[in-house]
Amino acid sequence: MKKLIKLLPVIAIFAMMVSCEDNEKSPLPATADGVFVTIDIESPVIDVTDIENSRYGGTLKDPVGNVASHTFSVRRVSNGVASSFADVYTATSFPADFGVTAGEIAAAIGIDPASILPGDRFDFVGTSVGVNGEVVTFNTLNADLQAETGQRQAYSLVTFISCPFDRDQVLGTWELIDGGFAGIVGHQFEVTADPDAADEIILDNPFGEIEPNVEFNPHVKIDPVGIAELPEDKSVDPPNSRGYEYFESSVGCCGNRFAPTRIVGDGFLFACTGFMTFTSNVSTLEEVNPPTGSIFSWNGDPSLVAQKIN
After folding, report:
1. 251 CB contacts (<8 Å, ≥6 apart)?
2. pLDDT by residue (tens digit) across 3-48?
């Protein structure tokens, strides 16, 4: 499971932006004297089958050594209804072992633990106070620290109450809510069963028609608690108009056009609520004439969010 976690800590499902940076410059470090806390997520979801003991969390670090405290506030979003935020955890020394159970979250926001349901989402916002009194929140971070998954920022995090994966429940029609680096919001697509693997599904062209007559149909591998893996997939059917045998986006960045050459990602898919969200790392080739061979990458959050509608 740990190999799936590295892209998950910075999922900010509906509010992130997509950025691109030269690989030689990424990941971008925090400034030398800036107040900044990172997190390495070790438990990405709360397991509904062991809800009393399972916890969400990881290790908080202070890379520069100038943070006096870091506090997380949390809210629950259940069936589209959000609670108020309430403080749930504070660290005053680093590294710190951050971890909360569903019961601790329920106590913080003042609800009955028995009311927590599979598929419930918990949004965490972090606030750091530096030894110099400087206060840092997600909104005060620069765009690169907000959007680049590799920064492991500890200021906007999301987890869920996982529900057991049932492939039959996720087959059917879905609607794209956010396509990240590509895609047509509102596009409807089908999810079908992979005939060769019981724990895999196929997303039938989830981004819509990015280029005429070209489809991208990724296979998604899902573990029993809903953690999903979007394996590297370079192929499209048929190859696009310039003969590239990989998915191509028309997204322009940094004054040039880029063609993705590698798409790989991690995320969640919850059968009980019909919801999926993925982050992706998309490596691209700079398209200029003559070609320079420069490679850029997008770490978009989120890059695919969809809701089951039928």
Report:
1. 18, 181, 182, 257, 258, 298
2. 333 333 333 332 333 333 333 333 444 443 589 999 999 998 898 8
- What value does the CA radius of gyration of the chain take, rounded to a whole number of Å? 20
**175-186: burial string, b at 16+ Cβ within 10 Å, e else:** bbbbbbbbbeee
CATH topology match: 2-162 vs 167-308: no
Domain residue extents for the chain = 2-162, 167-308
Give whole-number Cα distances, 61 to 112, 139, 268, in Å.
32, 20, 25
The DSSP secondary structure of 263-305, one letter per residue, reads: EEEEEEEETTTTEEEEEEEEEEEEE-SS----EEEEEEEEEEE
Farthest CA pair distance, the chain? 63
Q: How far apart are CA 279 and CA 264, in angstroms?
A: 8
Distances (CA, A) of 264 to 76, 90, 215: 29, 34, 17
Residues β-bridged to residue 60: 39, 96
From the list 246, 173, 262, the residue with the least C-alpha distance to 211 is 246
Q: What would the pLDDT profile of 145-194 be if each residue is shown by its tens digit? A: 776 555 688 999 999 898 888 999 999 999 998 876 566 789 999 999 99
pLDDT mean across residues, the chain: 75
**Residue range 5-14, pLDDT digits in tens:** 333 333 333 2
Phi, psi of 20 (to 5 degrees): -135, 145
156-162 and 46-47 strand pairing:
parallel
Indicate the CATH number for domain 2-162: 2.60.40.10
**pTM of the shown model:** 0.62
| pLDDT above 50 for 240 | no
What is the rounded CA–CA span in Å between residue 3 and residue 117?
A: 27
Per-position DSSP letters for 225-263, written without gaps between them: TSEEEE------BS--TT--SS-----EETTEEEEEEEE
CATH number of 167-308: 2.40.128
Cα distance between residue 149 and residue 132, in whole Å: 27
